């Protein structure tokens, strides 16, 4: 029970009236002062009674994506035969306040609010704080209701700029050249994309190119999809800093976006995080694993080569450098520019709705 600003003002008024009543010997002033004291004394009891018998239940999806709007429903249940007034619930996970003016006896009131979670993680509602200042606003009564609600906020999947053109296209160009005489190639048509040097001219879509005023080619899905592997390596370097946390979160978002892109256009063979390998390479298990991953040193422990390996890191350490020297075909993606170690080396920048990859020359 907490005394509000209004309650403190009332105490000052009571003391002032008491002092004035003693000096003037006015019975009417003493009577009015007694009335104010009774109000002040009964307020905490009424405020406590107002929250008794109220139950809360939160209804929400089991999982959502970061930066995605989500609707959360709060069910207020009055289990008593009395009216409840002016009840508020503060959701500390997203700084939302839900207010119910009137809760009739034996009734349920459903309140809905929309929120977004900026980053991945597991949101847990362990305690739900109910508040009321009913009836006179002199005292604020708070109680905490226990709950076991849990929401998985999966990493945001952003659009990758220049990724297909700069990475997958170098594999597809060779395959498209072999498909020149394949009469069933039209059956495996996937989408239209920008022309890059080395594409087979026979696959240029002249009608689409005329509309866009640039060369557009038809992309086909090979019966043998591209196989890739992703490895995440993170070096803490020294003590924890805000910039390190930002780089770690950006790597997680890039890993989730890459996994989604590869699942659409090829097949993910292995997903390696530090010295561990994710059991399932399907999209949802990988996203769930990344959701609960905490910032930490993720050492690079790979010794054997993986086909079409993509390494995501914030810094090239000595073990990684030695691996890259023996695996020049590895694709390296860094959080910041550095010296060149392999032919396919990129630096990425996370924007509001996309991730831009720039190749280091």
UniProtKB/TrEMBL annotation:
Q: Which residues cross the membrane?
A: 7-22
InterPro entries according to UniProt: DUF58 (IPR002881)
Any idea where the DUF58 domain is? 192-267
User: Which keywords label this protein?
Assistant: Membrane, Transmembrane, Transmembrane helix
Query: What stretch or stretches form a coiled coil here?
Result: none
- Pfam families under this entry? DUF58
Q: What is this protein called?
A: DUF58 domain-containing protein
Starting at the broadest rank, the lineage of the source organism is:
Bacteria, Pseudomonadati, Planctomycetota, Candidatus Uabimicrobiia, Candidatus Uabimicrobiales
């Amino acid at each position: 029970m907490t005394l509000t600003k209004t309650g403190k003002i009332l105490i000052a008024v009571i003391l002032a009236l008491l002092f004035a009543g003693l000096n003037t010997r006015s019975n009417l002033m003493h009577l009015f002062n007694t009335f104010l004291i009774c109000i002040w004394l009964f307020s905490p009891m009424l405020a406590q009674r107002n929250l008794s018998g109220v139950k809360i239940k939160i209804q929400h999806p089991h999982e959502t994506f970061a930066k995605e709007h989500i609707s959360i429903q709060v069910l207020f249940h009055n289990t008593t035969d009395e009216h409840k007034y002016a009840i508020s619930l503060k959701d500390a996970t997203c700084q939302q306040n839900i207010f119910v003016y009137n809760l009739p006896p034996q009734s349920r009131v459903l309140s809905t609010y929309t929120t977004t979670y900026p980053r991945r993680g597991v949101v847990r509602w362990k305690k739900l704080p109910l508040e009321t200042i009913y009836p006179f606003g002199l005292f604020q009564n708070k109680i905490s209701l226990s709950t076991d609600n849990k929401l998985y906020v999966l990493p945001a999947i952003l659009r990758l700029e220049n990724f297909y053109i700069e990475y997958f296209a170098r594999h597809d160009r060779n395959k498209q050249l072999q498909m020149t005489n394949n009469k069933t190639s039209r059956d495996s048509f996937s989408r239209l994309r920008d022309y890059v040097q080395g594409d087979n001219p026979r696959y240029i879509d002249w009608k689409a190119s005329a509309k866009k005023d640039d060369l557009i080619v038809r992309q086909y899905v090979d019966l043998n999809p591209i196989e890739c592997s992703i490895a995440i390596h993170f070096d803490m370097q020294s003590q924890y800093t805000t910039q390190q946390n930002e780089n770690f979160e950006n790597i997680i978002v890039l890993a989730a976006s890459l996994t989604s892109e590869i699942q659409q256009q090829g097949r993910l063979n292995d997903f390696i995080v530090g010295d561990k390998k994710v059991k399932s390479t399907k999209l949802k298990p990988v996203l769930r694993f990344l959701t609960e991953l905490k910032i930490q040193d993720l050492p690079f422990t790979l010794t054997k080569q993986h086909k079409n390996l993509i390494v995501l890191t914030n810094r090239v350490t000595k073990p990684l450098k030695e691996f890259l020297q023996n695996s020049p075909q590895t694709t390296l993606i860094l959080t910041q520019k550095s010296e060149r170690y392999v032919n396919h080396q990129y630096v990425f920048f996370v924007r509001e709705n996309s991730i831009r990859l720039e190749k280091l020359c």
